[in-house]
Amino acid sequence: MGRVFVSRQLPGRAIAILQEAGHAVEVWPGELPPSPGILAARVRGADALLALLTDRIDADLLEQSPRLRVVANMAAGYDNVDPGMAAGAGVWVTNTPGVLAETTADFAFALLLDSGRRVTESANSARAGEWRTWSPGGFLGLDVHGATLGIVGMGEIGQAVARRGLGFGMRVLFCGRPGQTSKAGPPGTEQVSLAELLAASDFVSLHVPLTESTRRLIGARELAAMKRTAFLVNTARGSVVDQDALVKALVTGEIAGAALDVTDPEPLPGGHALYSLPNVVVTPHIASASVATRSRMAEMAAANIVAVLAGEQPPNAVNRPQSPRRLP
Ligand code: DGY
């Protein structure tokens, strides 16, 4: 039936789902993403692309791939492709909402605990042989229970982080994305403005998608508005934060620390200033990386492809082509 290009090896049953639906599947064997040129060459004859957030899908690629009917992103975020541009070219774009919210929230909370209680910093010190005695003043951190958590973005991940915060006995504040009416938070949470949230929170956790209105949402002014004792947690997208301003704020002690699962660019190059700061934890964009969740994300992306190639509307469309491409 269809030809599907999958841009990386995947966990779970995604490939089997595609093959069981009768499709011929080519999987990119590399550990690293195909280069833009190789991606374009492989997608040229394909009916569907199972893409990752590391694959940039632009107008040229769609133009050079006349058979391509769907880009199924294996991620909730889809800032690697412009859904409106794809719709104009007759190509569906799909994502994987829902399945990763709890797993991502677990990880955001892990980063919050890590930064406040200096887990990575103290573990690194112990591993380096620096543990000489129990010290009354060693690695003093910030209590998480009783602290104020500020959640920027009350989507499904923000909601899941809020529930964790309440469970830890935190006061939970939230605000929506700029220019949008926010969903209500779970009972017990308080909606405030971004300015109020920044001024009052001990931990600020970001849960907005990357759009033109959220790019660099947290810049020098916002960092200066945070408490000097506060921590920034980012599991959203690196470009939501002005990273140079963040480095400055961390170096000058304008905020106490940061825990970042996402950076700008990714990967963050070796030797970057963020790696040398003791009050920073950087992880390699793994917030959704549990065996179960990554398998389900891949399987959802495969199911979206199966639907489109069967002439149906995909269950997780993020755009709606006026004239979807048909088989030539
Ligand atoms: C997403 O889904 O957008 C995450 O960043 C990757 O899990």
Describe this structure in words.
By secondary structure, the protein is α/β, with parallel strands linked by helices. It has two domains: 3-98 and 291-309, Rossmann fold, CATH 3.40.50.720; 101-282, Rossmann fold. The chain contains twelve helices and twelve strands. The strands form two sheets. A seven-stranded parallel beta sheet has the order 8-7-6-9-10-11-12, with helices on both faces. Strands 2-1-3-4-5 form a five-stranded parallel beta sheet. α7 links the parallel β6 and β7 (171-175). α1 (14-20) packs parallel to α12 and α5 packs across α7. The protein is elongated. The protein starts with a strand and ends in a 19-residue tail after the last helix. Bound molecules: (2R)-2,3-dihydroxypropanoic acid. (2R)-2,3-dihydroxypropanoic acid binds at residues 53, 75-77, 100, 288.
